[in-house]
Structure formats: structure tokens, C-alpha cells
Specification:
Structural class: alpha/beta
Number of helices: 8
Helix content: 40-55%
Strand order of the largest sheet: 2-1-3-4-5
Bound molecules: flavin mononucleotide
Order of helices and strands: EHEHHEHEHEHHH
Amino acid sequence: MKTVVINGTEQKGCTYQMKEMFLDAVGRENEVTEYVLPKDCPVFCIGCKACFFSDISVCPHKEYTAPIWASISAADLLVFTSPTYVFHVTAQMKALLDHFGTKWMAHSPEPQMFTKRAVIITNAIGQGMGNVIKDIKDSLDFWGVARTYVLKQALSQAKWDLVSDKRKANIRAKCGRIAAKIKSAKNANPTLKVKGLFLMMRLAQKMIDKSERKAGRERTADYLHWQAYGYFDGRIPWKSPKRGLDYRQQ
Ligand SMILES: Cc1cc2nc3c(=O)[nH]c(=O)nc-3n(C[C@H](O)[C@H](O)[C@H](O)COP(=O)(O)O)c2cc1C
């Protein structure tokens, strides 16, 4: 199982320890590629929107973003980690996710996303983990990721050494339960939310195209993407995830 880990902090602290526990539980035999933020993407999205009008290959930060997206695209399992910073995800994680806004279903979703699983790992001293999970899960859902599991733990402490053995045992047990679900089947069937989003966005693309054509404007890059992937011809990405742009020849 190809796994990509996006670490939302460079600290080898509590978040790192929880991620290591999870990787132990899911099995060390997996091929794991790890990125650490902000080291591996030390830039903010500048809002040029080039990716929306073309694709991610024209991102001015492609030296950072292209390899990370390629790893995400190729992986079976995505692991996103972030401690809670002022009730939200770390800024470096948000900065990375902004770069992949073009991969949201409102724009140009990739078919292989619809059979992937993901795990969000977070912790806090006490409060704010719900927002961290939402900050990451919004992107995962809108990319089309089939199933997302959550490993969260309030630690009452900021240092791993001070976290109680009881809490650590609780985290280990949660890791085991999530790992068992992930190992139970290779491909995941998307949640109703993800399926519903795809069908709604397909309708939205058709409606936007109608009004753009009425206004005498060119077809949008998003519409052409949906068309090229065969989404308007009844292709359902979670049923044929491996077929790429050349699906018509297959
Ligand atoms: C800038 C900053 C903001 C934080 N905000 C919160 C917060 O809103 N709620 C909370 O419970 N803990 C907060 N914390 C504590 C961290 O979430 C907590 O210490 C976490 O375990 C750190 O993980 P790490 O060891 O991987 O860095 C904050 C810590 C930092 C550095």
C-alpha cells in the first residue's frame, strides 16, 4: 500500500509520535513517502489562479507543489498530520492545501482520488481539534477522497514525555482500529457525501457552461477537464478510477 504522509509540523513532538504509532499499526512494509511542512513547501499561494485557468503544472511554486501532488495522486493512503494552533490547522498545512484548490471537485477532480483512503492525525492540549479536522477534511472531501478516518487526542500536556501512559495506550488502541479498517479492503467506496458532491458539481459544470456559452465566452478549463475525463459521458470515477485522460481509447 503506497502511503504519503504530509506532516503539518517540523517538530518531532506529540504529532510526530502519534503519526509513528499509526504507521506502526498500519504496517511498516508499506512504501511511505513523507513530506514535512514548512520545509517541503515553504511558500504561500500567491493567488495568481494560473492553476484554475490551466492546471497545476503552471503553478509558480511547482518545484514544491508538483512532487507533493504527484505523491498524493499515486498513493493509496494519505496521512495528514497537524497539531492544533489557535483552534485551527497549522499555517503551513493551510498554505499547502491552498495550492491544491484547483483539485477540488468544483474545478478539476482526478478520478484516482475516489478510491483513496485518508487519515487525519491531530492533537491539542485541550480545545480546537474539530476545526483542525475540518480544515483538512474539507480538502479531502472536495478532492474526492473516498474515506477519511480521524485520529485525535486531547493530551493535557504539550510535551510527549509528560503525556500519561493511559492516554498513550488509548492512542495506540485507536491506531489499531483505524489500521484494521484500512487493511480490510484495498479500494474504498466513497461516502455518500463525496458521491453527492461529484453529482452536484457535474450538474454545476453543465449549468456554468450553458451560461458561459450564452454570454459568448470560451469553454472554461474546468469544463474541458470534466469533458476530457469523460465525466459528462456517464463515467463514474469511483467505478473506473485508473482510466486517465485517454479513457476514450481504453
Ligand atoms: C502557536 C500554538 C498555538 C496553539 N493553540 C492551541 C489551541 O488552540 N488549543 C490547544 O488545546 N492547544 C494549542 N496549542 C498546543 C498544541 O496544540 C499542543 O501542544 C500540541 O500537542 C503540540 O504538538 P507538537 O508536539 O507536535 O508540536 C498551541 C500550540 C502552539 C505552538
